[in-house]
Amino acid sequence: MNNTRRSVPDTKTGSAIPAQTALLDPEPESSFESSQPTAQPTDGLAPRKRRSLPSTLAAKRFAPNHHEDHVENRQAELFYLQKQIQLQTQMIFVLEDGQRVQGVIEWYDRNSIKVRGKSRVLIYKTAIKYLYKLGEIGLPPEK
Length: 143
Prior knowledge:
Elements: E1 7-9, E2 16-18, H1 19-24, H2 32-35, H3 55-62, H4 67-87, E3 90-95, E4 100-108, E5 112-116, E6 120-124, E7 128-133
Antiparallel strand pairs: 1-2, 3-4, 3-7, 4-5, 5-6
C-alpha cells in the first residue's frame, strides 16, 4: 500500500488540504452565510420575488381535465340534434317555467334551437328543462 500523502485543492480558498480531510468533510467550513445566495448588483433594483399562485388557481392547474368531458357531451348533443333534424322528428321541449313546445327542429347553434310547430319559435338552450321525441315518454302531446 502506498503511504504517500496526497492533497486535494480546497474549493473555497484554493489551498491544498490533506486527502483524508477532504474525504471526511468535503466542505470543511460550511456555515449559514455560505448557503445564502450572494448579493449581485441589480442596478438599484431589488431582486424579483417569485409569487405563488392563489390556492384556487393552483387547484385548477393540477385538477383533472374536465374539458374532455365537456367536449364529449357537446359532441353527443350535436350528434343527437343533427339526427333529429335529418329525420324531421316531432319533439317536445319542456321549458324551465313548465311550458311545452312541440315541433320539428329547424336548426340550432351554440345557444339556441329554432323549432317549427304551430309557429316558429326560437328557444334558448338555457331555458330547456328537458326534451324528448313525441310518443317516447307516455305523456300526451301538447294540444
